[in-house]
Write a structure and sequence with these properties.
Distance between the termini: 61 Å
Order of helices and strands: H
Shape: flat
Strand content: under 5%
Helix content: 10-25%
């Protein structure tokens, strides 16, 4: 791992020296995004009245058995006698 990092550091150092001496020319200018012309369709949203069948829900009381859980606390610990 150290060898890879050392090699990478040397390569960065060589690149900086080449740019500083003018052997490597890096020219960065502001660019523009490409323009795009697209023909698209149209979407319209609206409302209309219509009759549809919907289910109805009926609520009624029914007796069922449910599981229960009973939790009892552990007894308090008694202090041990001093020796």
């Amino acid at each position: 791992m150290r060898a890879i990092l050392g090699l990478l550091g040397i390569l960065v150092l060589v690149a900086v020296v080449l740019i500083a001496l003018g052997f490597l020319n890096v020219d960065v200018r502001g660019g523009k995004l490409p323009t795009v012309a697209a023909e698209t369709g149209k979407v319209s949203v609206g409302e209309s009245n219509s009759t549809v069948r919907v289910p109805s829900v009926e609520m009624k009381d029914k007796q069922v058995k449910l599981p229960t859980i009973d939790v009892q606390k552990a007894p308090e610990p008694t202090p041990s006698p001093a020796k």
